Amino acid sequence: xxxxxxxxxxxxxxxxxxxxxxxxxxxxxxxxxxxxxxxxxxxxxxxxxxxxxxxxxxxxxxxxxxxxxxxxxxxxxxxxxxxxxxxxxxxxxxxxxxxxxxxxxxxxxxxxxxxxxxxxxxxxxxxxxxxxxxxxxxxxxxxxxxxxxxxxxxxxxxxxxxxxxxxxxxxxxxxxxxxxxxxxxxxxxxxxxxxxxxxxxxxxxxxxxxxxxxxxxxxxxxxxxxxxxxxxxxxxxxxxxxxxxxxxxxxxxxxxxxxxxxxxxxxxxxxxxxxxxxxxxxxxxxxxxxxxxxxxxxxxxxxxxxxxxxxxxxxxxxxxxxxxxxxxxxxxxxxxxxxxxxxxxxxxxxxxxxxxxxxxxxxxxxxxxxxxxxxxxxxxxxxxxxxxxxxxxxxxxxxxxxxxxxxxxxxxxxxxxxxxxxxxxxxxxxxxxxxxxxxxxxxxxxxxxxxxxxxxxxxxxxxxxxxxxxxxxxxxxxxxxxxxxxxxxxxxxx
Length: 494
Hints:
Blueprint: H1 2-29, E1 31-42, E2 58-62, E3 67-73, E4 78-86, E5 91-96, E6 101-104, E7 115-122, E8 127-130, E9 134-135, E10 143-148, E11 150-159, E12 178-182, E13 189-197, E14 202-211, E15 214-222, E16 230-240, E17 243-249, E18 255-261, E19 264-266, E20 268-271, E21 274-277, E22 280-282, E23 290-301, E24 305-316, E25 323-332, E26 335-336, E27 343-346, E28 350-351, E29 357-358, H2 377-382, E30 387-388, H3 391-400, E31 402-407, E32 410-415, E33 429-432, E34 452-455, E35 464-470, E36 475-481, E37 490-493
Parallel strand pairs: 1-14, 15-25
Antiparallel strand pairs: 1-10, 2-3, 3-4, 4-25, 5-6, 7-8, 7-9, 7-11, 11-13, 12-17, 13-14, 15-21, 15-22, 16-19, 16-23, 17-18, 20-21, 23-24, 26-27, 27-37, 28-29, 30-37, 31-32, 32-33, 34-35, 35-36
Protein name: Fibrobacter succinogenes major paralogous domain-containing protein
Organism: Sphingobacterium siyangense
């Protein structure tokens, strides 16, 4: 009897141990590991499509690149060529872990000493766990955890070293969580990422956080020390609107602006021809019309001495979370500044007779003029120092490249580039095919096949003077009779 009891007890122990092992194996087999790394920051996710609008005296909207150009007055003698460009993060085909999401290339490091927190929510949005507020280290993994197999949402918040981490109660349903930020000096970084945990597998997750607020950085450039002048001082530069607070939803990163709006001060520094601003953060929902004002800018030029002016850009719409570069170039009124050219070129062809003026855009054909007397037309239309472009000056652009294309539906040739520009077309010379009139002189005729003709000298040699000839296949310079009626483009030395 005693032996039977011992045998029964042994069987129970073996059975109990076997069940315990099975239960333990089952528990292990239903969990997976997640290794989370804070891999950097970006100013826009790959799906961001910045929508912006910049309109003032003259603007050319480019919807393909979201780049906006405008020409605004500086003073009675100078203009500002303004280019506003969003700088969203680029994407590559590298996948972030096994999530199937593309990872932005070359992210900026979060920075040693930054504060961050990561929270996890299950498929229904209920709280699972969080890290608490941690200090970022550039080495290794920032959080390891085990989770039951299933679908989760990871949300991360961070601020730079020295900034105040917002007060957030993570321990509640994700859809209910909001937190407040006071002032754009606290640059809030946010990221939400869906994660699928698979039993007995380790998933490496790289989090690249996005900035929630707008950043604008500006560069002011004088294009000539001789004509425009060196920049000597800038005062009272601001960007608006900029709201005092933001109420942020953790689930999607969207925020509601609050408090009063106060223009954000922008500080410039530099010497000589180029000054650059600090990177200014502003709080706005991106639905309001904004303004950039660059106060008083002082110049000192070799040719014109000391003078000053102001820069105002209005009706500026920016999308939150995007970094913008604002480039401002000071040029003589009525000029364009072709890259690497030693000359200013008039912003369009001459047009009219009494008075002779400048057309409103490069793609407008303008009027045609005889060769005799044309030497004074440019100065009369644009002021001292402007003259008819010469063969040498045209050739300097041709040497940099030419490309036949269209501008606003008008055919012609771009000079100064070997490819037709898709953006910033006014960075280059565009000469439209024009309505030249042949003379009946019988000598030095305009070549057959010409589609556009422009004078390329201010003086007449005998009865002829050089002219730029546009055809369907190229650009050349030949002598034609002064009685021909052709177009004119003006130039001024820098």
